[in-house]
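Supplementary Data S3. Sequence and structure tokens for construct A.
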Amino acid sequence: MTAPPAAAAIVHIPKCAGTSLRRRLETHEGVTTGPKYHDPYLMAIKAGGLSLDDPDPFAYSIDELSAVGATSTVVMGHVSVKAFADAGYSSIRIVVREPRSRMLSLFDHYQRLDGVPQAEGSRSDAFLSFLNSEFTNTQGNNFLYRMIAGAQIEQEEYDELADVLRLNSAISTLDAKLDRVGSVIVGAYWDRDVAALYSEVAAERFPELSIARTNELPRENVGPEFSETEVLSHEALARMADLIALDELALDALIDRGLLQDRSADDLDRDFEVTARRHGFTLN
């Protein structure tokens, strides 16, 4: 492996304002966001059937990730905290989001791409179909947890997530990762902290540019808001709770270590309610 990279690392969790942050950062010299963007720990299992042992042309190896950090100012990608830490990065930033809101946003993102099953009937039916899809079971579930721990959760594991022992084992794995890398992580919430995170990175990494601090970043990769709403079914809410069980534990772990500002359950519920309305749903 090359010398420890000097670049700052930014973990891009899908649907957590990463595209907005990336496009702002890409206006500066020394920022690497590709051509490789994906994490071999998380993204090697794709629709094409790649296994974790197959070469993935879109995934950095750990040595490649370390090398690009030695010649860059900032490196950003769908790369887990674990992978950045294994590559030797000593400054890692991560943007997280209320997990139910992220799942709704992911659903609309893939609907725009025609990448999820299209159910007959209402949007609520379509959302439930998305939650039950193979894609969500194998790639969409507990993504906040996976982007920290660098762990792949197979479908058979997903089916057992309600088991307390399995949850405890998974969070112990996350604890071990955070014990090793927690001192280098800075966490921020989408979307209220993202502009501040950008301003912080810009001041730290591009001091010669005297970049003005900003309170808001333009939103990118955002679908249209819905003028009409329908009730999100209890079945969908229960299914979603299973899909984000480890995400919620991961956020608690970041908060417990002082890596993420604490937010009350009421705050997070309000976030979810606002996001649900924006995506055409009400909760009751």
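Construct B, processed identically:
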Amino acid sequence: MKKAEDVVLEAIRRGNFEEAGRIVFRDVFKPLLDLIFHIEKEVDRNTENIARLTEKVDKNTENIAKLTEKVDKNTENIDKLTENVKKLLGETGRLRGRDVEFRTGLTLQGWFRKNAPDYEVFIWDGTEADILIEGRGILASIDIAIKPKIEDVRQLKNGIGVIEENWGRKPDLLIIYSRSGIIPKRVADFADRMGIKIVRKPAEIRKILDESK
């Protein structure tokens, strides 16, 4: 740059302004213009790349939105399926319980017919009890449970009025028959407070009936 400056000054001293102008343009302005042109090309190239990148980002954003929508729909479907499975399992468990109660009721009916014919066993179609046993002036309301629960105690107690209304008399005894033989202490204590007996064997039911005459 210093050399170009000296050449320009020398040309001016000689009065050769045209040559000085060419030197200034060639050594000063042209490199600047070339640099500006190069920068403009780089800016254009970067702008184009940014536009392409923006387009890709927009497409990815759109794809992510679609994927999110699908995930939300799948989540909703999974929730509905889970709810339906729970309902199905609950209904299956309820039906299994009713089946066990009914078959156990038939077993008790057969046992009493053979071993205690003075008592007659009736299958009760309702939630208040599973069977009624009547004989020798005694009426017993009996709930059959695989494993007795607090709710079984409440259900048997709350069903007294319905049985009295439909059978014509109030049950003298309330008994829960544990099909599994398991009697949780908490349930046993609660049943005792409610005046309800919990038994494991048919013979225990007969004993309670005999002792209540």
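The beta strands are 120-123, 131-135, 138-145, 173-178, 197-199. The CA atoms of residues 84 and 176 lie 32 Å apart.
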